[in-house]
Amino acid sequence: KAEHAPQNKAEHAPQIKAEHAPQKPIIGYDEFLRLQEQAARAETEAAPKAPALFVTAANGKVTGAMIDAHDAAEAAKKQEAKVDKAPKKPVAAGGVPSQAENVVVTKDNREEGKTEGKNTRQMFDKRESRRMNAKPFCAAVQRWRNRRAAGKCKPRSGTTTSAKASASAAAASDGSIRVYVRKRPLFQHEVDRGEFDVVTVPAAAEKDALPIEIFVHNCQMYPDLKRMYVKHSGFDVTRAFGEGTESVEVYQTAAAPMVTGALNGGIGALFMYGQTGSGKTFTMEAIEQSAVRELFAGRNGVPGASAVRVAYFEIAGKKCTDLLSPARTDISIKEIGGGVSGGKEFKELRPEEYRQLDVQLIGAMEPAAKTCAELEQIIAAGKSRRATSATHCNAASSRSHAVLRLTCVLADGSTGRLTLVDCAGSERKEDNMHHSAEQRRETAEINASLYALKECVRQRRLQAQKGSGDGHVHVPYRSSHLTRVLMECFIRPDARLGVIGTVSPASTDTEHSVSTLKTVGLIGGREENEGVHEEKEDVSKNLETAADGTVSEKEVERVIAPVRWSNANIKAWIAKPGNEKFAAKVTVPGSLMGRDIVRMNPLALQNLCGGDAKLAQLLHNKLREEITRCSSKART
Q1: Secondary structure (3-state) at 242
Q2: Angle at 368 between CA 362 and CA 372, to 5 degrees
Q3: Greatest alpha-carbon span in the chain
Q4: Would the pTM of this model clear 0.85, i.e. be above it?
Q5: Backbone dihedral region of 182: left (phi > 0), alpha (psi from -120 to 50 degrees) or beta?
Q6: Using CA atoms, how far apart are residues 378 and 65, in angstroms rounded to an integer?
Q7: CA triplet 415, 419, 422: central angle to 5 degrees?
Q8: How far apart are CA 517 and CA 500, in angstroms?
Q9: How open is the CA angle 598-599-601, to the nearest 5 degrees?
Q10: What is the pLDDT of residues 275-333, one digit of tens each?
């Protein structure tokens, strides 16, 4: 409540109201259902009848049991074919991942006289190295968290903000996009395969403060593959949400102000970006459900919409497909009033000129819903036609940008608009290696549209910083279909924009989490490495984490082979507890070294033991035991 109270005044402020005219006559919810049912019946009638090979009954008729068995067999075959078509990583015999996946270089020493198959050097990829050294890496990350919680890692200036300051910053209009980041929990199946948490959302150090910083702990090995280090990369954002944050809080912070703006006649757009499997679509669905309810119920004293026109389509490269049409018809984009912002009048447009701005979807089905239930059913019908593809991270990865455009018809006849964009799921290079040519083309088109989006936001921010009368900065919104659809948001200075980035805490996704945070920062209008800071520290292999979360470094005895002993090492070993019988009678000459004493037989050791043959034999046996204990074979 404290966070959103200061925003009420800004949300209720009068805004420029648009008049978004539909491209063709509006259809109601009942007409929308009739078209859906008609398409379903046509598809059923076009389905092939039962084949003649099932006519094997005694009376020559096809029984219901035969058809059911045939349908079940066909469904099983289709499922098997779908699984077979999904890209797979190469797997060696026995179900073990192939050497190419985990081991980069393996050199075997197979020279004459040496043990065959003994590895002199073995290199693993960084993800496998993290799992192999998970214990010290986890301890190093926990140690950093303990220092941060204790205040020993002092936050940089401006890394936390009060609720009042956050609301004030959210109300500012600098042309940039508000950047939110959400971290999902670490799943049990990830823990079972050796993953650990490498993402931290530090708690605010001040009372009534909100975290606006997120860290990714990049665990790496030095080139010698023995020493380890962790690079703590911090990213400044508008608001960071930890794994314990509920979706309702994310909605109230990021999307609820846009809903209020749409009910006041304004426009807003919220983007969702993240790695496949990081909770991107899950978060967007939760936001959609909350937004649908409040669009009709109203918010903060603002009455709800009398009706909501829905346009739901996907953008894949240069192709727009209507998800509400049973035939998945193609859509053409038509700009209305896009040229009124030319010259030096970016901020000098009159309200009636803003009402001319619109993007019509030629050929799209835009049904009007009058209740929350109707709107939910329409959105569910569109989701069932979303293009997905099986990847290594997710069995149904989004391979296109899904755009849900909700046009609110207000009581006075004006309209407001809320656009929710679920961006295509991004993939790691490791996954792209096994993609088909079609999937690689889709990935290139996704990257091109994201680049166009970043450029539009950057130019919009430059225009807002220059102000009116200082010349016009061109916003290249025609660079892609995604930015063309959002033309109003880039031209109108009162538009509210936001992006939510979702990150996975698993160590294997470290590089992708860093890439996601950098990308959402660029989408937010920031320059390269703006708001990014790093801290590097070495990691000891002897770090241990106690049950209470404290981290300590275990003391390990330094093992020196007797052949490498110095004279002082020999004297220290003889004086070691357990060798008291030698300490009183054995004399060690100052010139005696380890390489000499290991070559002495019991007869030669008698000179050190004062002629005592029995004591010399005991000393010889004790030396052999120490050599065996220090040998590499015994220690492994």
Answers
A1: coil
A2: 140
A3: 115
A4: no
A5: beta
A6: 36
A7: 165
A8: 10
A9: 100
A10: 888 888 899 999 999 999 999 998 888 899 999 999 999 988 788 899 998 888 899 88
